[in-house]
Write a structure and sequence with these properties.
197 residues; binds fe (ii) ion
């Protein structure tokens, strides 16, 4: 990534540290999410611009926690998604991010707790990085990590990180394939669709 872009991300890093001033837990959270997102993005050979947007989104992804707590006294995923984009937009504008970068980053901030329709790579990687950190911070048990990681993770680098960090096996196994076939068969049956072999 060119020097200017790297510097911009550093400025954003500082801004987010100030945003969560006095709250080291939140600061250390976004630092870890950013670091894993960076590593996964590089491992997946992202283009420079895509990587820049991903890292920007990782730094600001939880920005909605603070306005959420101030307004509603809570900071669950939905509130974060609701409150985050406007706060992120303000910050990114101050740092003169380009309009299309702001658009994409704020969209990611507004969707990072929605897991049912992840289509793009930056979105997928942001979600994986956040999960990698949350599993640990929330003290999630190993078998639950394995299950949710199998469901959510798609990138080779993210899967490798999850397997290495938590000592679980995520790689698509024969059982996984069979489970999927079974799920598909049940779905077909429930829909009353008949497929000739
Ligand atoms: Fe997060």
């Amino acid at each position: 990534m060119d020097k200017k872009k790297r510097e911009k991300l550093e400025q954003l890093y500082w801004k987010m540290t100030e945003w969560f001033a006095g709250d080291p837990k939140r600061i250390q959270h976004f630092v870890k999410v950013h670091s894993f997102a960076e590593l996964i993005g590089k491992g997946e050979q992202m283009e420079e611009q895509e990587q820049f947007v991903l890292e920007g989104a990782a730094l600001v992804h939880d920005i909605g926690i603070r306005p959420g707590e101030e307004k509603y006294g809570r900071c669950d995923g939905k509130i974060q998604e609701q409150e985050g984009p406007a706060a992120a937009e303000k910050l990114l504008k101050e740092l003169e991010f380009a309009p299309e970068e702001i658009e994409r980053i704020t969209w990611l901030v507004g969707h990072h707790h929605t897991y049912d329709n992840i289509a793009e790579r930056d979105y997928q990687i942001l979600v994986e990085a956040d999960f990698l950190v949350n599993y640990y911070e929330d003290g999630i048990e190993k078998d639950k990590i394995q299950k949710s990681c199998r469901k959510i993770f798609r990138t080779e680098t993210g899967i490798r990180l999850c397997e290495t960090m938590y000592g679980v096996t995520i790689k698509i196994s024969e059982t996984w394939a069979q489970d999927n076939i079974r799920e598909m068969e049940e779905f077909i049956e429930s829909q009353g669709i008949y497929i000739r072999q």
